[in-house]
Description:
This protein is an alpha+beta fold. It is about 40% helix and about 15% strand.
Amino acid sequence: MSPPASDLFSVKTIPGAGRGIIASRDISEDTTVLNSEPPVAHVLFREYRKEVCAHCFLYDRGRTLRVKDHDTGKVFCSASCQQEWLVHTGEQGRRAWQDLHHLIQTKSKSGKNSGGISLTDHRPDIEDVDRRWEKAQGEADEYVRTRSDTSNALDDTGRKQAKGAVASSTDPDIVGYLLSGILYHDQQPDRWREAVMTLAMHDEPYATTHDLEAHCNSFVQLSSSMPVSLLRSCTVQVCRALAAVSSHNAFGIRSGGEDGEEYMGYGVYPSASYFNHSCRPNVAKQRVGNVWKFWVTKDVRQGEELCISYLGGDEKDLNVRQRRGHLREVWGFICECARCQREGKASQDGG
Ligand SMILES: [Zn+2]
Ligand SMILES: [Zn+2]
């Protein structure tokens, strides 16, 4: 499924810019060029857990949604969304969410602090990352060994150990993001290989050692609590890939579609990640439920690149220097789009 197939465009290697989407014929304004698949991994932030439908991401101006699954803590906009979520998630998946919900609740009741962020915290390099994950693997192995192969439920010992794992800095949003990806991996291992492992990966995806710590602890926590049948997908490799793809392939899930005021979470949509950025894009996007729709906003000639904007809201109004600075910081590239080249030159000429 990845790269996306279409008779309107093809994915090509662009000198100096990785891969990009090139129109394979003239496309007229307003033509839809891509409907993405649902996210392969996503998170709805915990502060929105009562307000956003776990299936279709509907947000009703902050109202608490009525349909609630008390075992998993998920809410839905309707009974049919709940039903679809169940079908999509499967019985094992639901059980995994249930175990996680239980652990997070236990944790918040125990009132343990997740540990402050040190001011001297830094972005861990690849060696730090390797070393920390190796330690997490050892810890997870311990937990997995003590669990009975026949029982899917967590026994008392397992629960105690899991509590130990969550006592340190574990973030419910990180652990939820990882679980969603682990379930996807478990259900669709082939598509995982084709769609996720071929995405651009960030070498050093953890912004701080605190962040790295939280990812590793989340993995250990999941290893200790997840139904045994899912453990084959709860691996260091899967969790590291999920972090590595999130920084450069995730799309924000916002309340009003693209530029809504509420930033409710984010998701990884492989087919949509092939669009490069332009500060004057010819493709617009909108979230429709849990998928994205992309269409051209002007007539496009065969051979032209189809680009979206990675800038959100007010960021579009930044001047060229600020825009380039922001894109370099967040996305790791120096924008050389036509608009930046023209405005960059103009600002140089003007002194
Ligand atoms: Zn819904
Ligand atoms: Zn630009």
